[in-house]
Design brief:
It is a single chain. Strands 1-7-6-5-4-3-2 form a seven-stranded antiparallel sheet. Strand 5 and strand 6 form a beta hairpin. The chain is 35% helix and 43% strand. The relative contact order is 0.21. It is built from four helices and seven strands. The protein is of the alpha+beta class. It has one domain: START domain (Alpha-D-Glucose-1,6-Bisphosphate, Chain A, domain 4), CATH 3.30.530.
Length: 152
C-alpha cells in the first residue's frame, strides 16, 4: 500500500534537513511518547546505516520494529526502512526548496504485509483510504509545525 503527503514550512531547506536528521532529538521525542528506543549500531553520528530497535504499544498489543536509515542525501532526500514482524515499511522524505526561506516536505510511504493478518488489515485500510489519507495529512502538518518550532 502506498501513501503520500506533502506540506510546506517557512524555513530554509538546510535548516529543515538538519532538524530531520537530528536523530538524538527524535529519540528523545519518541521516549517522551512512551516508545522504547535503543540505538543498535556503533556509530553516533548521522549516517546511512544507523539502526534502532523500537518497542511500543499499538491497539493494545506490544509491537517491535527495527528502523534503519537507508539513504541520506544532503540535497534533501532521506529514506528509512522499518522492519517489523508482520509488516515492513519504507518511508522516503524529499525536501524541495520553493524559495530561500520556504521548503516543501514530501513523504512517500510504502507498507508491505508479511502475514495473512497484515494483508487483511491493509485491505481494510485500503477500503478506508480517504479517511486514512486525511489523518496522515493532518499528522504530517502537525509534524511540520513541530519541526518549525524546533528550528525557531
Amino acid at each position: 500500500m502506498n501513501l503520500s503527503t506533502r506540506t510546506d514550512i517557512e524555513k530554509p531547506i538546510a535548516d529543515v534537513y538538519a532538524a530531520l536528521t537530528n536523530f538524538d532529538m527524535w529519540e528523545t521525542a519518541a521516549l517522551r511518547r512512551g516508545v522504547d528506543v535503543a540505538r543498535i549500531d556503533s556509530q553516533r553520528k548521522v549516517a546511512t546505516g544507523a539502526q534502532w530497535d523500537v518497542k511500543f504499544m499499538h491497539r493494545g498489543k506490544s509491537r517491535e520494529a527495527r528502523i534503519t536509515v537507508g539513504s541520506m542525501d544532503p540535497d534533501g532526500q532521506i529514506s528509512m526502512n522499518v522492519d517489523g514482524k508482520v509488516m515492513d515499511a519504507e518511508a522516503k522524505v524529499e525536501l524541495v526548496a520553493l524559495a530561500p526561506r520556504r521548503t516543501r516536505i514530501v513523504l512517500h510511504l510504502e507498507v508491505k504485509p508479511r502475514t495473512l493478518g497484515a494483508r487483511l488489515f491493509l485491505q481494510s485500510v485500503r477500503l478506508a483510504k480517504q479517511k486514512v489519507q486525511t489523518r496522515l495529512n493532518d499528522r504530517f502538518a502537525n509534524f511540520a509545525r513541530e519541526i518549525d518550532q524546533r528550528i525557531a
